[in-house]
TrEMBL record, chain A:
It comes from Micrococcus terreus. Keywords: Iron, Iron-sulfur, Metal-binding, Pyridoxal phosphate, Transferase. This is Cysteine desulfurase. Signal peptide: none annotated. It catalyses: (sulfur carrier)-H + L-cysteine = (sulfur carrier)-SH + L-alanine.
From TrEMBL, chain B:
The keyword Nucleotide-binding applies. This is tRNA-specific 2-thiouridylase MnmA. It comes from Micrococcus terreus. The active site is at 101 (nucleophile), 198 (cysteine persulfide intermediate). It comes from the Bacteria. ATP binds at residues 6-13, 32, 125. The gene is mnmA. Residues 349-379 form the tRNA-specific 2-thiouridylase MnmA-like C-terminal domain.
Length: 418, 394
């Protein structure tokens, strides 16, 4: 059976140019830190790749700190900024954030709260998951001197909502507070320009844009101070030690370059396909609720270019009366691969913290499905989904009912507790 | 047949699933996430306490080439099994949570979901046998009596049995299952058996209960009502228990004393010598038949059988009859719906040919004829002739 892959936000197929660049570089010997010919050659390849990568995100090459992925980049930015800021002033412990951040951000900050004295300030969001900028401004104005950092993701990995990052960063900058943005879902999908973003640090990842897994980057402004998390050989401006992975970097840069070249065309193509998917899912399942923002003007309802308010490849629904795991099971069996949101170690579909942060109750949050499109998606994928969705939805609905009203009589089922 | 193999992550369920695949069924493996123990994952997370078990189950499914999923039943489990366990203890009874889990989770919540999603049966690694009898399906003991688990399945009804698959039924020994697992390349071949109550991982049931049931100091009495001492909370005691009584004075006859009765209402514990633990008459409420009822059900006549009151206890010869009279339901439960499999108002009266020790209210009485499981009832009272008909009330 042919599988239809609608989970590009989890990981997307490696682009052929990236695979080629990776395999070619992996054959070559050399540690970029070595001073001999092999080392110099490796360094040359690495720095060429760094230049190319920086160019795709509007950064200076020296602002690119390579990491093992998006999670490490977020950890480095948040811990690095927090520790550095607090060492300047021990009372500087506030961290401003929203409840919809990725676990790589949320759990890192929670760790700082539990182990290192951080005080968390959650800023509310609207029903679409966009931060309330007035509240953001107010929280930053309360005690900027005691605020270690503020962080806001560029685009949400579950519901696809794009945040007003430029405004939020400007507000933080006006108060002299460093600003980190987790742009893992955004880079390669919508235009990102680090120089004009106002961000102090920006995290992104290789495999989300068609590069290899195991590499990511943190963009760090040259005037920013970060305390290192990994100590060792002093690579990457002493901020992130560890032997530099030339081949992974070659693949990463090649993927980012190709994604960047086709970005505008892909945005429109995927945005159109996504709108078709949304329209068809809502036609097939009348009560499916689209979550997150839409690429429409909130005041006039006028259509906006794809990727203005929502990631072009993201469609996210809740299906009342169904449980995600029943839907996932049915779709997987029928050859459609998608996601309930974000994964858990044991593979259990958890009620999404993003959806509960938006005020959904647990039952609603447990009925979510995310379909994400990417560079290999074609209209036939959407057709296949719609061929099987009505049947899968129907049995998930029956299974959902079974979870609440037992049809199987058991020895003690006539006894209901008062 | 489309079969859902419930995969605990242990060797039995893995081999059971493998045999279901060999039998030509279309098998999908599902691991049930049942617990939301704090500290095992990030705070507030649910359903993934058993990452190792989940991984083991997944590895086994990969080996068998079948799809694998984890389904979260932690909410149902917390309500139907864990809370029930606490409530039963608080009421002075001794429940069997594994039985409750089979009744309400594996062969109800899971089975219902499976049926809704197009499966025909749930397959588990239980050692028990379902056979086609003259009057429909019957539940029987496994070939390996040492591993036999028919007791904890005694609560299944005909409907539940008709959707159950126990591929280990005829396996002569557990060693053979392990050998088969090794032969099949399953990594769980040498994984130790699980023993304790799964939601009390350190095995300290008393300590676990103390955190959940409000207890206060009360009196320890002898069978004549004389005060012998005090205890920290009646609910922490089980009939037949000897340890932890801490009675200062020795008994007149110098013999050890055992818990004869737990009375949560006036928070007292009654103790006495071992021989007074022996009971010869047991009443069971909320009975259900594992398949067709015995023919004596309608007439109320006595029928010969064996009684078993714990998972690995020896069956005792007995006779039993069904009484249609009304029994007292516990205060906190109300009967709803007359068509339920376990009928309210019906009770079993069981007379033992040999006395049995340590029978506690709340335990499950499973009746057998030969290897066949007739059904089960919850023990409501157990009578000791030595105490002249004094009922041991729950």
């Amino acid at each position: 059976m042919n599988s239809v892959y609608l989970d590009h936000a989890a990981t997307t197929p490696m682009r052929p140019v990236a695979l080629e660049a990776y395999t070619e570089a992996a054959r070559r010997l050399g540690n970029p830190s070595s001073l001999h010919r092999s080392g110099r050659s490796a360094q040359l390849h690495l720095e060429d790749a760094r230049d190319a990568l920086a160019a795709t995100v509007g950064a200076h090459p020296s602002e690119v700190i390579l990491t093992a992925g998006g999670t490490e980049a977020d950890n480095l930015a948040l811990k690095g900024l927090y520790w550095a800021r607090r060492s300047q002033d021990p009372n500087r412990t506030r961290i401003i954030l929203t409840g919809a951040e990725h676990h790589a951000v949320l759990d890192t900050i929670t760790w700082l709260e539990q182990h290192d004295g951080a005080e968390l300030v959650f800023v509310p969001m609207d029903a679409e998951g966009r931060v309330d900028l007035a509240a953001w401004q107010a929280e930053l104005a309360v005690a900027p001197e005691q605020t270690a950092l503020a962080t806001l993701m560029w685009a949400n990995n579950e519901i696809g909502t794009i945040q007003p990052v430029a405004e939020a960063a400007t507000i933080a900058a006006d108060q002299g507070v460093p600003f980190h943005t987790d742009a893992v879902q955004a880079v390669g999908s919508i235009p990102i320009d680090f120089a004009s973003s106002g961000a102090t640090t920006l995290a992104f990842s290789g495999h989300k844009l068609g590069g290899p897994v195991g590499i990511g980057a943190l963009l760090v402004r040259r005037d920013a101070t970060l305390t290192p998390v990994l100590h060792g050989g002093g690579q990457e401006r002493q901020i992130r030690s560890g032997t530099l992975p030339v081949a992974l970097m070659a693949g990463f840069a090649a993927a980012a370059t190709e994604a960047h070249q086709h970005l505008d065309a892909e945005r429109n193509r995927l945005g159109t396909l996504r709108d078709l998917l949304i329209e068809k899912v809502q036609a097939a399942v009348g009560n499916a609720v689209l979550r997150g923002a839409q690429d429409r003007d909130p005041a006039t309802g006028e259509k906006l270019p794809a990727g203005t308010r929502r990631l072009p490849g993201n469609a996210h629904f809740t299906f009342p009366g169904c449980e995600s795991d029943s839907l996932l099971f049915g779709l997987d069996t029928a050859g459609v691969e998608c996601s309930a949101g974000s994964a858990c170690t044991a593979g259990v579909a958890q009620p999404s913290h993003v959806l509960t942060a938006l005020g959904l109750d647990e039952a609603e949050a447990r009925s979510a499905l995310r379909f994400t499109l990417g560079h290999t998606s074609v209209p036939a994928d959407v057709d296949h989904l719609l061929d099987v969705l009505p049947g899968v939805h129907q049995s998930a609905l029956t299974a959902g009912m079974a979870g609440r009203v037992s049809s199987i009589r058991t020895a003690n089922s006539h006894l209901e507790r008062n | 047949m489309k079969v859902l193999a419930a995969m605990s992550g242990g060797v039995d369920s893995a081999v059971a699933a493998a045999r279901a695949v060999d039998a030509g069924h279309e098998v999908v493996g599902v691991h049930l996430a049942l617990s939301r123990m704090p500290g095992t994952l990030r705070t507030g997370s649910r359903g993934c306490c058993t990452i190792e078990d989940s991984r083991d189950a997944w590895r086994a499914c990969e080996k068998l080439g079948i799809p694998y999923y984890t389904w979260d039943f932690s909410e149902r489990f917390a309500e139907d099994v864990v809370q029930d366990f606490v409530d039963e203890y608080a009421a002075g009874r001794t429940p069997n949570p594994c039985m409750r889990c089979n009744e309400r989770i594996k062969f109800a919540a899971l089975l219902e979901k499976a049926l809704a999603l197009g499966f025909d049966a749930v397959c588990t690694g239980h050692y028990a046998k379902v056979v086609e009898g003259e009057q429909g399906l019957e539940l029987h003991r496994a070939a390996d009596w040492a591993k036999d688990q028919s007791y904890v399945l005694g609560v299944l009804t005909a409907e539940q049995l008709s959707h159950s698959l126990f591929p280990l039924a005829d396996t002569p020994s557990k060693e053979q299952v392990r050998a088969e697992a090794a032969e099949r390349g399953l990594t769980v071949a040498t994984k130790p058996d699980s023993h304790d109550i799964c939601f009390i991982p350190d095995g300290d049931t008393r300590g676990w209960l103390a955190e959940r049931v409000e207890m206060s100091e009360g009196q320890i009495l002898d069978a004549q009502g004389q005060v012998l001492g005090t205890h920290p909370g009646a609910q922490a005691f089980t009939v037949g228990q000897r340890k932890g009584l801490n009675i200062g004075r020795p008994a007149a006859d110098g013999k050890p004393r055992f818990v004869l009765e737990v009375r949560p209402k006036d928070n007292t514990v009654v103790v006495g010598p071992r021989e007074m633990l022996a009971v010869d008459r047991v009443a069971g409420i909320r009975p259900s038949w594992a398949g067709a009822p015995v023919s004596e059900e309608a007439t109320g006549d006595w029928f010969d059988c064996h009684l078993q009151v714990r998972a690995h206890g020896d069956p005792v010869p007995a006779r039993a009859r069904v009484e249609q009279g009304s029994d007292q339901l516990p205060d906190d439960v109300t009967p709803v719906g007359a068509t339920a499999a376990g009928s309210a108002g019906v009770r079993w009266v069981i007379e033992l040919h040999e006395p049995l020790q340590g029978v506690a209210p709340g335990q499950t009485a499973v009746l057998y004829q030969g290897t066949r499981v007739l059904g089960q009832a919850t023990i409501d009272s157990a009578v000791n002739s030595a105490r002249l008909g004094d009922a041991v009330q729950g």
